[in-house]
Amino acid sequence: MELSWVARGAASAERGRRLVELRGVTPNGYPLWEGREVAPLVDLHPEYGAVFPVLPRRTKPAVYSKAARLGLTKPRARWSDNEILRLRIYRSGTREEVLAAFPGRTWRAIGLAANKRGHRRPKSSAKTSGIPIVDQIYQRAHSLGMPLTELDAIVRSRNYFAKRRWRGKQNHGVHHRAVLALGGRLRARFEPL
């Protein structure tokens, strides 16, 4: 790699910065933060509910990010070696036990840290609906290890099973396609009169 390539990259970056300042928007089209926007954020900081109406052209993630860059929020607490070792409890412990083992951490933060290090909770049992055919489809998908979103993609049903859209109106065509996709057959059985 030649030094001239690095110099060209630095020059290009500087031209880009000047262009952003000139236009007043980022390359993605978002307006740059102005002093009149930063002042209310600093004044009202912990009360985000009061900040959002004052800054109508800013999204919530943009406000949170700017507050972090201004140093208004506390940085995320790093995971100590001791905490990382204790993450094994996430696999088998109840929610209360896990939260008690990690005071000051949220359930979501513990789950993300545990999953990142390979500690996953066992899959929950198949969902039940009270509708025999839907329950059988759920049980078969669960036994095959197929996520419901994948089943929906196979049968082209727009989250019919994953988001339980069968609660409003049942679609028997989707049921039939799901049974076929899971390797089953659909039969009718009539009760005697």
For the termini, the CA-CA separation is 85 Å
Describe the sheet with the most strands. none
**What order do the helices and strands follow?**
HHHHHHHHHHH
How does the helix and strand content classify structurally? mainly alpha
Global morphology: elongated
Q: Helix fraction?
A: 40-55%
Number of domains: 3
- Helical run tally: 11
Enumerate the spans where pLDDT stays under 50 for 5 or more consecutive residues: none
The count of β-strands is: 0
Radius of gyration in whole Å, from Cα? 27 Å
Strand content: under 5%
Mean pLDDT: 83
Description:
The protein has helices at about 5-25, 35-45, 50-55, 60-70, 80-85, 90, 95-100, 105-115, 130-145, 150-155, 170-180. α2 runs antiparallel to α3 (about 50-55) and α10 (about 150-155) crosses α11. With about 190 residues, the protein is an all-alpha fold. The chain folds into 3 domains: about 5-70, no CATH class; about 80-115; about 130-180. The chain starts with a helix and ends in a 12-residue tail after the last helix.
Please write out the topology.
Blueprint: H1 3-23, H2 35-44, H3 48-54, H4 60-69, H5 81-86, H6 89-92, H7 95-101, H8 107-116, H9 132-144, H10 148-155, H11 172-181
Summarize the structure.
The chain is mainly alpha-helical.
Key descriptive features of the protein:
55% helix; mainly alpha; elongated; 0% strand; 11 helices; 193 residues
